[in-house]
């Protein structure tokens, strides 16, 4: 009982008690639902994941055939969701950074144009923009038989974008492994070189050495094993384009919609972060002879980043969850694949539980990564 008088232990005890109650309640609901389903001769459990999927997925980020298992089909949906969410977050952050800086421009025309951009994208529902971009691709671009060749072997039509693809005879596993090892080693070398440069105050060509270390594993793989690359060019046909890399209109519309929506929100976060930095930082930089652009890049933005990361976490979580709107335009993300599985197997409860767990798990991973980044750049009291 003495421990209960300690505030820390008492708080921990209450938290554990709440978790236990929630677990008991969840287990009770699960067993009740299972018993009711069994009375109606409805199959339960996760055994269906090992069955043959038997349906086609129009776009797969990983290899997939209809003869694969249901679990493999779910994995394809997860990979598609992660792919479009990650690309949307990257492109949206880059565009939003430029727009946010443009909002602080001294040019009144540029400033107002960026304001209109932000307001248009923030105040219209994302679903309407997804439908707009999809309708634009389908109705404005020409059909396959009249596809536009916008560059050599690059075709644009209402069936999407077809570009040349690179293929390797032995696959890309070994080169990709070499690239990852090289990048990790380069980061380590660069950090060591930076630490020594700050300690001794003398240049040590850390960037050049890091670049050499990054390239060395891939060069070694090429010299020892050889990398046989070949180009697969798209070939126009009467009804479809064959060969090359096919980027479907559903993916393009979803990527555009999510990336532009992210960019508008990121732009406001960037603007707020810049405005939060004191005017004295600008004046001190100008007194040292730095131009306005160098002051923004070297002084203001690094300090504003500490303010921007917490709200950016919410933006990245939102874009990941908003990717579920892909079902409205037919992009095979996790939700759409799960709906197909539910219609085929009739096991809705288990399938919904799976993709809820996936969304929860990936959201927690995003939060942990952003919190780690925030902790790394946070000011530390001495």
Automatic annotation (TrEMBL):
Native source organism of the sequence: Rhizobium lusitanum
NCBIfam families in UniProt: HEQRo_perm_3TM
PROSITE patterns noted in UniProt: ABC_TM1
GO MF annotation: an example: transmembrane transporter activity
Descriptive protein name: ABC transporter permease subunit
Entry's family note: Belongs to the binding-protein-dependent transport system permease family. HisMQ subfamily.
Positions of transmembrane segments: 12-30, 73-99, 120-141, 161-189, 209-231, 251-270, 315-332, 352-372
ABC transmembrane type-1 domain mapped to chain residues: 78-370
Top-level taxon of the source organism: Bacteria
């Amino acid at each position: 009982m003495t421990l209960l008088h300690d505030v820390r232990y008492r708080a921990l005890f209450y938290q554990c008690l709440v978790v236990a109650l929630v677990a008991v309640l969840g287990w009770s609901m699960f067993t009740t639902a299972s018993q009711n389903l069994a009375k109606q001769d409805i199959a339960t459990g996760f055994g269906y994941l090992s069955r043959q999927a038997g349906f086609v997925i129009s776009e797969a980020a990983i290899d997939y055939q209809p003869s694969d298992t249901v679990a493999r089909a779910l994995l394809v949906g997860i990979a598609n969701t992660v792919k479009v969410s990650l690309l949307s977050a990257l492109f949206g952050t880059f565009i939003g950074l430029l727009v946010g800086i443009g909002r602080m421009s001294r040019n009144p025309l540029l400033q107002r144009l960026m304001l209109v951009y932000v307001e248009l994208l923030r105040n219209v529902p994302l679903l309407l923009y997804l439908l707009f971009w999809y309708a634009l691709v389908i109705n404005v671009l020409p059909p396959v038989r009249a596809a536009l060749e916008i560059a050599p072997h690059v075709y644009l039509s209402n069936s999407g974008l077809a570009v040349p693809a690179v293929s390797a005879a032995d696959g890309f596993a070994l080169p990709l492994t070499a690239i990852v090892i090289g990048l990790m080693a380069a980061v380590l070398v660069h950090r060591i070189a930076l630490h020594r440069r700050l300690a001794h105050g003398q240049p040590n060509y850390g960037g050049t050495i890091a670049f050499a270390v990054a390239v060395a594993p891939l060069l070694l793989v090429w010299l020892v094993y050889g990398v046989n690359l070949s180009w697969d060019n798209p070939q126009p046909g009467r009804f479809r384009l064959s060969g090359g890399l096919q980027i479907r209109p559903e993916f393009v519309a979803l990527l555009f919609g999510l990336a532009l929506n992210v960019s508008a929100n990121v732009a406001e976060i960037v603007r707020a972060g810049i405005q939060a930095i004191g005017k004295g930082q600008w004046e001190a930089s100008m007194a040292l002879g730095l131009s306005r652009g160098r002051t923004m890049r070297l002084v203001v933005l690094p300090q504003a980043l500490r303010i921007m990361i917490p709200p950016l976490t919410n933006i990245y979580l939102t874009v990941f969850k908003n990717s579920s709107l892909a079902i409205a335009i037919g992009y095979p993300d996790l939700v759409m694949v799960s709906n197909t599985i539910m219609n085929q197997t009739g096991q809705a409860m288990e399938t919904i539980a799976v993709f809820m767990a996936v969304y929860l798990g990936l959201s927690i991973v995003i939060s942990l990564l952003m919190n780690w980044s925030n902790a790394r750049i946070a000011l530390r009291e001495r």
